[in-house]
Amino acid sequence: MNIEKSQKDFAAAQKIIPGGVNSPVRAFKGVGGTPRFFDHAKGAYVTDVDGNTYIDYVGSWGPMILGHAHDAVIAGITETAQKGVSFGAPCELEIDLAQMVIDMVPSIDVIRFVSSGSEATMSALRLARGFTGRDKILKFDGGYHGHADGLLVKAGSGAATFGEPDSAGVPADYAKLTLTAPFQDLDEVKRLFAENKGEIACIIVEPIPGNTGVMDLYSNGFLQSLRDICTAEGALLIFDEVMCGFRVSSGGAQKLFNITPDLTCLGKIIGGGLPVGAYGGREEIMRKISPDGPVYQAGTLSGNPLAMRAGLETLSRLQDDSLYADLEAKSKRLFEGLLAGCKAAGVPATGNRFGSMFTVFFTELEHVTCGADVSGHCDLAFFGKFFNEMLNEGIYLAPSQYEAAFVSAAHTDEDIDNTIAAAERVLAKLTA
Ligand SMILES: *Cc1c(COP(=O)(O)O)cnc(C)c1O
After folding, report:
1. Is 145 touching ligand 1 by the criterion CB < 6 Å?
2. CATH number of the domain that residue 310 is part of
3. Going by CA atoms, what residue is nearest to atom 5 of ligand 1?
4. Looking at the whole model, is its pTM more than 0.90?
5. Where a domain ends, among 284, 315, 346?
6. What is the 3-state secondary structure (H, E, C) of the chain?
7. How confident is the model at residue 164 (pLDDT cuts 50, 70, 90)?
8. Which domain holds residue 280?
9. Ligand 1 proximity of 209 Cβ (cutoff 6 Å)
10. Separation of 251 CA from ligand 1 center, angstroms?
11. CB of 267 closer than 6 A to ligand 1?
12. Which residue among 295, 315, 335 closes a domain?
């Protein structure tokens, strides 16, 4: 595969941009090799600057659930752009998208738009603190909730890929307000609430963790227990659905699992590929936000018309349950096909999947339940080889064992079968 132009671009970018990238995991540090610079994308495919086309399972890290450059989304953005791309004043598209999200996500009655998932989570935390009058928050080891200071404590994929569990530059005094517990460890959650009686504002959790690879917190009742504890302790339960919202059902994980958080953070799919985040929830909590209430939060480009239109065109196509049924069928076929391929090649593997988000882990473990299972028991070197060989086969996976794969509505059964066949060839080569 000729990747000359990507190599040149990467060298040029590294001179003037840290690591050559504007978000760390794009740099391929966990897998080795040269990041591809993309020129264009359509449907299930991305094409790099050297003209190589790949079947894409990154989907811009989740947003492209309809596939790349969906005709209606592009037409909508183009039409709206003709009328001006930002006003810094209210526009009707904000009301339309707010109403659509409120209709789709069960726990959201009032919503505020921001420009990224990170902004959504940090704003939701400030709101939880402002509402409860408490300073401490509780998150889980390996839960990634964006890059705000207090959330970069045991924060999953990006940090884990580089073996840096925490970030430099986060004041220790600030990090002290962030309590952490391992996934599934209810006793530790209860102990922390007892030790910090009346001081914990909220639990923030990805209801389907996707940032140490996809994990399952639902099946054994863990999420429901968190709901019960928060209710009993007067703390808020925040679902960070930036990744799984609109991904696993039209109303996110909370609709799929029928568990009601107090606040929900959204991002990724909600902007259809443009920079949008949002947080929302019960009216009495959301009315604490400025200018209705004392919790300040603002954004020059928040709710800008281009981003709202991209969100509207995307979410309006996710109303149809048959779309999710189709995603489920294709994703199941791919996930099971990959695991069967591993088994046939004698490569120990397991995985977790919810709808069209999944991770296959190269490990002897029967179940992978947390980031420590990945760092301690997965064959990360083998993943790196598998990733690069798949890339040579024209399959673009996330460049880290700690990430999810995403299937889009644009992937065909043929794409899926070609992907499985490529994996079989790669596994045969790597075990020869
Ligand atoms: C991606 C992600 C974020 C951060 O969103 P950005 O738009 O990258 O700032 C927060 N939480 C979760 C669960 C995510 O997957």
Report:
1. yes
2. 3.40.640.10
3. 117
4. yes
5. 315
6. CCCHHHHHHHHHHHHHCHHHCCCHHHHCCCCCCCCCCEEEEEECEEEECCCCEEEECCHHHCCCCCCECCHHHHHHHHHHHCCCCCCCCCCHHHHHHHHHHHHHCCCCCEEEEECCHHHHHHHHHHHHHHHHCCCEEEEECCCCCCCCHHHCECCCHHHHHCCCCECCCCCHHHHCCEEEECCCCHHHHHHHHHHCCCCEEEEEECCCCCECECCCCCCCCHHHHHHHHHHHHCCEEEEECCCCCCCCCCCHHHHHHCCCCCEEEECHHHHECECCEEEEECHHHHCCECCCCCECCCCCCCCCHHHHHHHHHHHHHHCCHHHHHHHHHHHHHHHHHHHHHHHHHCCCCEEEEECCEEEEECECCCCCCCHHHHHHHECHHHHHHHHHHHHHCCEECCCCCCCCEECCCCCCHHHHHHHHHHHHHHHHHHHC
7. very low
8. 71-315
9. no
10. 18
11. yes
12. 315
